[in-house]
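Quick one: structure for this chain?
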Amino acid sequence: MTAYPALPSGLIDGSVHRFAVRAYFEDTDLSGVVYHANYLRWFERARSDFVRLLGIDQRAVNEAGEGAFAVADLAIRYAAPARLDDGVQIATACTQLRAASCRMHQTATREDGLLLAEATLRIGFVAPDGRPRRMPHAWRAAFAPIVTEGSE
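Got it. Here's what it folds into:
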């Protein structure tokens, strides 16, 4: 059996998760500028790995029929374009924790420190029928130490 290297999940630096991506040809339009919807994909990947690093097993809870996270609202601001082959760091912070949801702030920054985009969003825990539900206690306990209340 072949051993594969661990997948890069980024790292938690204090209360912020940092996740690296690169702008590939498939991410860009004909002019070499990253298509706006790809920031949403990058932000989603970073959030998924952030929760994974916190020890939250979203798949197990979903497969057990308990529920899943869903984006409830999102606002994004584009500040500058990323271009083909740019290295981009996605930073994610949890800014508010509630019984059934949490708010997050995410930024996409180019290697030279230029802000490319930022988003604020709320993810809610929902039952299989789509109704809000309190997230599992262990999940809230995992988020609690890294919440940066009021930093949005």
